[in-house]
Amino acid sequence: MKRGTSMDIYFLEEIGFQHLSIDRFLPEKITLRDGHPALLWLDTETNHGVLDAEYWVPESHYEHNYRSAASGNYDGERFTPEDHVESYRSLDKQQFSRVAPLLRPDSKVLEIGCSYGGVLKEVVRFGVDVCHAVEPNKEDARFVKSSIPEVNLIEDLFLDADLPESYYDVILSFQVMEHVPSPRRFLEKIHALLKPGGSVHIEVPNHNAALLRNYKEARHSIFYYHKHHIHYFSVQSLNRLCHLCGFKGEVTTDSIYPFFNHVYWHFNKKPQKTAAVALNTPDPADNLTDAGRSINEFYKNVEMEYGKLVRQHGVGDILICQSTKI
After folding, report:
1. Can you tell me the distance from the alpha carbon of 95 to that of 154, in angstroms, rounded to the nearest whole number?
2. Where is the signal peptide (predicted)?
């Protein structure tokens, strides 16, 4: 792995961006979530960011140490796989709803970086012919093997995993591709594993998300950038990369964090305590009176309108690429 703070042809090749000119990238100083200063290389044409290799974690980190450093509790308290299942239940169902139209009873499905298996469980419940997964984290892999025995799980990094080519109908990847040095190699391998006409569904964080670009909350910027994410995608950069790697489709944006999470950030300058709280908007009033029910309905309508707004302007917190192999 190359180390240093220079943008050159060798670094471009390592990250799979050798088709781009070095002159497009400018250095930008950032602060990572752990408080350390770092350097981001910013593509001035697409707003795609690449963390300088000086700050990358080693790939072995994901096998044993990732869960100690990345927790659903934002105060740093460690989460177990069981904790993740409970906290991210609503998100898992939301993510599955986006991929369900791709599935059929005879589908052969692969999920890359399945974590604790939240979406996989929904895929198995739907009923498909084959369900495979790749997960490098030892703790998560053990949990998935014991809790979802229908899944054939490979404990490895995706790019190192031995998988059959031209075999899968659908390949899924949620919040994974931002972690890999070369998203181009990642997409090229997906292309090789899919059958002709097969579908890929990828979700990654959006580098043009509203909290980062429109609210301009300085504390959120520090929370947003962290050492596990090498790539920070935009609609334009992800679209171009998918087309370059032989996929047909368009990238859209959506939000997994609701409007009231953004309001919390705006007024409190910090994240909510846990992912479970941040991802859900509870009914603020009781449902025992007409007034209470009307207040709760008002909050739901605000959330829906805000969701429409961020999708319309491309500033949702995630990018969604649902494409077909050509």
Report:
1. 22
2. none
For residues 133 and 160, the answer to whether their CB atoms sit within 8 Å is no
281: which 2 tokens?
């908007």
Cα–Cα distance for residue pair 322/201, rounded to 1 Å = 4
**Quick one: 61-257+310-325 is in which CATH superfamily?**
Vaccinia Virus protein VP39 (3.40.50.150)
Which tokens hold the place of 39? 């350097």
Give the pairing type, strands 168-174 and 108-112.
parallel
- pLDDT-derived band at 74 (thresholds 50, 70, 90) equals low
| In the chain, domain spans | 9-55, 61-257+310-325
CA distance linking residue 165 with residue 209, whole number of Å: 35
- pLDDT, tens only, 265-284: 999 999 998 888 999 888 89
pTM of the model: 0.94
Measured CA distances, 156 to 114, 137, 159, 303 (Å)? 11, 8, 8, 39
Contacts of 180 (CB under 8 A, 6+ apart): 158, 159, 186, 230, 231
Report the pLDDT value the prediction gives residue 207, as an integer from 0 to 100.
Answer: 98
For residues 163-183, give the mean pLDDT.
Answer: 98
Task: Check if the beta carbon of residue 232 is closer than 8 Å to that of residue 42.
Answer: no
Residues 79, 94: Cα–Cα separation, whole Å: 21
Residue 123 pLDDT level (bands cut at 50, 70, 90): very high
Nearest CA to 323 among 240, 252, 247, 253?
247
Residues in the chain: 326
